[in-house]
Design brief:
- The chain is α/β, with parallel strands linked by helices.
- The protein is 32% helix and 9% strand.
- Strands 2-1-3-4 form a four-stranded parallel beta sheet, sandwiched between helices.
- α4 links the parallel β3 and β4.
Length: 199
């Protein structure tokens, strides 16, 4: 993938963050009733879990200063079934090994962790998921050369106002620091002023 330059990435899981579990799908804790989700894409038979999507999430995610990337087992179905219902364009997606459990070793890492760090290739990133653990946090800190926020969402509630605030603040700081670093590098590359021989 791209190098450390550019906007931060946001790796987005579907089950948990966008499709909450453990709630009445007609009465989500935040946002409008789930039955107000966006229009059904033509020719798609509705999965009953899709009624839990909040169409407002697409607008809020698009407004964040980052590049959105699907990081979900929904794979291409995230673009076909999720994106149109919440108003997102087609997004790039992380592809996983054929047997994800093969990438989940005895060290307790989530099976996505190594793949996301590899995909980011040094770029700053946010990972939004409901299964992130302290072990994942520690591994990313030790193996990723860029900035990273691993943000765990409560799978019972999905993305909330508080989640968007935390993610938005982190992205704003990360983007600001990246611009400051780039400006500092440009200044350090300027040729030195000619020496006029004066002491």
């Amino acid at each position: 993938m791209n190098g450390a330059a550019g906007r931060p990435l946001l790796f987005l899981d579907v089950d948990g963050p966008l499709i909450p579990f453990g709630i009445d799908p007609e009465r989500p804790p935040d946002g409008p009733p789930a039955c107000q989700a966006g229009p059904e894409p033509p020719g798609v038979s509705a999965n009953p879990l899709l009624a839990r999507l909040d169409p407002e999430h697409g607008r809020r995610l698009s407004a964040l200063p980052c590049d959105l990337v699907w990081a979900t087992t929904w794979m291409a179905d995230a673009n076909d079934e999720i994106a149109p219902r919440i108003g997102l364009p087609e997004l790039p997606l992380v592809t996983w090994p054929d047997s994800p459990e093969d990438d989940e070793g005895l060290d307790g890492l989530h099976w996505k962790t190594r793949g996301l760090v590899e995909w980011a290739a040094g770029r700053a990133f946010v990972w939004v998921d409901d299964e992130i653990t302290d072990r994942d946090q520690a591994w990313v800190s030790a193996h990723h050369r860029g900035r990273a926020l691993l943000h765990r969402v409560d799978h019972r509630r999905g993305l909330t106002d508080e989640d968007f605030e935390v993610i938005g603040r982190w992205l704003a700081r990360s983007w600001s620091q990246a611009r400051d670093t780039k400006a500092s590098c440009r200044r350090s590359r300027r040729p030195a002023a000619p020496h006029d021989g004066m002491p």
